Amino acid sequence: MKYVVVTGGVVSGLGKGITISSIGRLLKAAGLSVTAIKIDPYLNVDAGTMSPFEHGETFVLEDGGETDLDCGNYERFLDVTLTRDHNVTTGKIYSKVIANERRGDYLGKTVQVVPHITDEIQAWIERVAAISVDGTEGPPDVCLVEVGGTVGDIESSVFLEALRQFQFHCNPGDFCLVHVSLVPCLGSVGEQKTKPTQHGVKELRGLGLSPDLLICRSSSELLGPTREKLGIFCHVPPTHVISVHDVNNIYHVPLLLLDQKVDRLVLSRLGLDAGSSVGVAMRSWEVMAHAVDAFQETVTIAVVGKYTGLQDSYLSVFKALKHSSIEARRRLELSWVDSATLVDDSDASPAAAEAWATLKSADGVVVPGGFGSRGIEGMIAAITYSRINRKPYLGICLGMQLMAVEYARAKLPGKEHITSAEFDDNKANQVAVVFMPEIDKSTMGGTMRLGSRETLVSADDAWSRRGERPIASIIYAGKPSVKERHRHRYEVNPDLVPDLEAAGLRFVGKDSTGKRMEILELPRSVHPYFVGTQFHPEFKSRPQNPSPPFWGLILAAIGNFDDHFKLNAKKPKVIL
Which segments constitute the Glutamine amidotransferase domain (predicted)? Predict the structure, then answer.
């Protein structure tokens, strides 16, 4: 097994995840199979209980693992399917060691950070690296390992010590260390400053790790003298000092690395055949990256949620919209609307007026998932506006549940104040959304309905017999069932479904029991695109292979839904 380890220095948020994903993309283009491991030095067992405001979105894996958003970057860029074990946290490692100690596995020895914690980290990496992630037999060729945080953090020190030991555990030529650092350019001086990177590498070397490549983040391309200086003081050849400067879109990052022969440098360090076909294999990716810059027409989507203050909270939603807009050859413009400001159309406050103007000017609307009661009435107001004004709309998880609440309030007699049990658990007041009976209320972490589940997509109901084929059946190409990822504790009240269907709402996707609602929509004769999914389709969207519900939304938003699917029956979709 070959390992490429990525560490970070100076500041966090430099894009280690995109860097390691881009390296992996080049290695895949070289014909290698790759996997990825993310090390998060926090004490949480996983990211499931962490606030989106603090940590960004929780990315859900196929097996239900709740992880850092970087795992989403790996899956999208590398087109692999990871497991919960591909995300290593301090909490997981210490829990495992303590469990071993309680069983007496250490035979009475004093359990210490070194060697027991560091040994467990190494064993975990080695075990998970061998898991096949892309359907091939046997272990992948290369494992990419990202260490979260920055060098010098107390939290990550034990992982860096484990990796120091691990480099000697590996065979010579099986370990490549890539360090990502910041090279700022101070406006008052206009000079690229190397001192922060020098200090970061000095700290890293003091821990017993010496980088093979330096990935330098900067606003502009690294100058020749800057590369030379970093090479001298950081003990790497200048050709191994790589410039990753600001680009128009992240799809250019693998191309930047390719232009600087990073694929050959990494392959050479690992003793693998560099070949000469990587550039050819990356051709379609290059066409896509440059095409994104050239789009003239735009599509504007309003994302109405409660975590809009930190856009990473909806990173996968943004990526899914981006993948679909690229496929539609449109430049995506996202409008973030804080649902707490979107309460009443008659509200004359400046914040409310701006929110409503943003919503009304958008070509389409998305209400994503979330938890808690704050901003709920604003989301319902956005749903009402979208339904009445026939604006293309996609509701995800909570956004789908609120569609049922909104429709019941509008169409069912005596249900004007109906809500979700999440916000009002008064059993005397019938609710449109209920707590799932199998969910454990006593704990928060890992107790939701998580991971990949099958949804049966109906192609035959009363509306279908009138010639109204379900939208879900159209966008999923007539598949009788689909597997998508879930993360929720509440579901549409099955007792209310008959009344909602009688009033015109269409439940076209259900679980295998037929009792749990997965997809709802309005017929296309009533609304061009009014779709809700209990699952999170954004987690499986990929560049050049967009998620069907998001793809349908973008097509409807640009007025091309009918034309596309009529043409699709005659010839395959053109991939950029």
Answer: 310-554
